[in-house]
Design brief:
about 70% helix, mainly alpha, 21 helices
């Protein structure tokens, strides 16, 4: 894929005049998809793929993606294919068909992103699109927070009135709008999913701040991050709090190891120990500075309440329920999509719904939900995809310059946050998260050629050649 080997700009952070229309399509898709309502967002997802098809070079790049042994591409294709296989045993045929079509759109967006990013400048443009969407969402969340305290007229979720109309026109589309009136959701339909969106943007915020050319750029990139942290507090999502703190710890340690790797070993150990001690102390100090409502909500994650008890009850009954059904259900599940498992969860937790009023659309666990939807095949395909992702990241990390390693650390932080948050929630219930997941899979395809400029690549290649000769 020699088409991607363009040098990074030598001027400012991102020279927009140098970007192709395909790169701009990635910018607008990453900005618009999280902001649009759920029923409109899927139509924007294939935008990078369509723009790539409109040019000869784009079609060549798409063809190049399929050449050679590309285990990540194979793993992603298997994951999507298994979702279509889940249509056959589906309890809700229309729901399974719509969800499988969504995954197909996401797969096309992955190809489009991989074909559209031709250099570091394009990558920075794409991240600016993600940043713009994050800023809009944060503003909406803060306005919703003001609404909670001042009764200022505002919608929560922002698109709730419009989505209710769509659900009346298309009754086969079932969307969970049982949100809390005191938790910000911005343009999402669920505060937990919105909280994860804010967390998954954080690693890329840190990367852009680290790549700032001057203090003015660093301050500019810090504003959306600060707004996102405020919005995260307004979600009152406990798992998002825990995931964010864990991710922050991972990023600081990993960034420090890269930044201080040229120091002597004793100094590197000292830096690592200092950060390990300083971060928990900082968290304790932060706890005293945060509003009491946020601190109490975070601490409640370590106490049993209705939400935690409900999740434990669901997890304890979902898997035995699957094993007690027909043997082939264990292999193929109940069908792709939440609509296929919603009735099953209502059946096994009717007593829970009657006691607490807690409706159960999904397993509130990424891995159990995939098992319920597509059986062992779907869970295994996801595990294969994650192994391919981390193997590709680790393999690419060995041939990167420092700033390339910074981006890889941020990218791996996104996927680690997905797995950690998936322990207590199912974020793929929202099509916007599905798109972002596959969009950054597309970024992985072109990582070796977009994360550092040509002169650094030549210097690194020379170093690797000398290292091989020594061996």
């Amino acid at each position: 894929m020699t088409e991607h080997t363009l040098a990074a700009p030598t001027g400012g952070f991102c020279r927009f005049s140098d970007n192709s229309p395909a790169a701009w399509s990635v910018f607008f898709s990453l900005m618009l998809v999280p902001v649009l309502p759920d029923f409109l967002a899927p139509f924007v997802m294939p935008l990078p793929f369509l723009f790539s098809l409109c040019s000869k070079k784009g079609r060549v790049r798409i063809q190049a993606i399929f050449s050679g042994r590309r285990w990540l591409l194979i793993a992603a294709a298997i994951f999507v294919a298994v979702s279509f296989l889940g249509i056959l045993p589906a309890i809700s045929f229309s729901g399974a068909l719509l969800t499988s079509g969504l995954w197909a759109f996401c797969f096309l967006s992955m190809l489009g992103v991989a074909a559209s990013l031709r250099g570091e400048n394009d990558l920075h443009l794409a991240l600016c699109g993600l940043y713009a969407g994050l800023l809009v969402q944060s503003v909406l969340a803060i306005l919703q927070g003001i609404h909670f305290t001042t009764n200022m007229p505002f919608w929560n979720p922002f698109w709730a009135p419009l989505e209710k109309i769509v659900m009346q026109l298309f009754p086969f589309i079932e969307v969970d709008l049982s949100f809390s009136a005191e938790r910000s959701t911005a343009a999402f339909t669920n505060s937990g999913v919105f909280g994860f969106y804010l967390v998954m943007c954080a690693p890329f915020c840190f990367y852009l701040i680290s790549r700032a050319k001057n203090l003015k750029q660093a301050m500019l990139f810090s504003l959306p991050l600060a707004a996102a942290v405020i919005s995260l507090m307004l979600t009152y999502s406990r798992m998002s709090y825990i995931t964010f703190l864990t991710l922050l710890f991972y990023l600081l340690i990993a960034y420090a190891l890269v930044h201080f790797r040229k120091l002597k070993r004793s100094y590197r150990v000292l830096v690592g120990v200092s950060l390990t001690v300083a971060i928990p102390i900082g968290v304790v100090i932060l706890a005293f500075l945060l509003p009491d409502a946020v601190t109490d909500r975070f601490l409640s994650a370590f106490r049993a309440d209705n939400s935690i008890n409900a999740r434990l009850a669901i997890w304890g009954k979902a898997v035995p329920w699957l094993f007690s059904r027909e043997p082939w259900r264990l292999l193929f599940g109940f069908g792709t999509g939440v609509q296929c498992t919603w009735e099953s969860f209502r059946s096994i937790s009717r007593w829970l719904t009657e006691a607490t009023g807690f409706d159960v659309p999904h397993a509130h666990n990424l891995f159990i939900q995939l098992l319920m939807e597509g059986g062992i095949l779907r869970l295994a395909s996801f595990a294969f995809l994650m192994l391919a992702v981390f193997f590709r990241c680790f393999k690419t990390l060995q041939t990167q310059s420092d700033k390339g390693k910074y981006f890889l650390i941020s990218l791996s932080g996104f996927f680690l946050a997905l797995l950690l948050n998936g322990l207590t929630d199912y974020v793929f219930v929202d099509p916007k998260i599905c798109f972002l997941f596959f969009a950054f899979l597309g970024v992985i395809f072109v990582l070796p050629t977009i994360t550092f400029p040509e002169e650094e690549r030549a210097e690194l290649s020379l170093k690797l050649t000398k290292r091989k000769k020594r061996k």
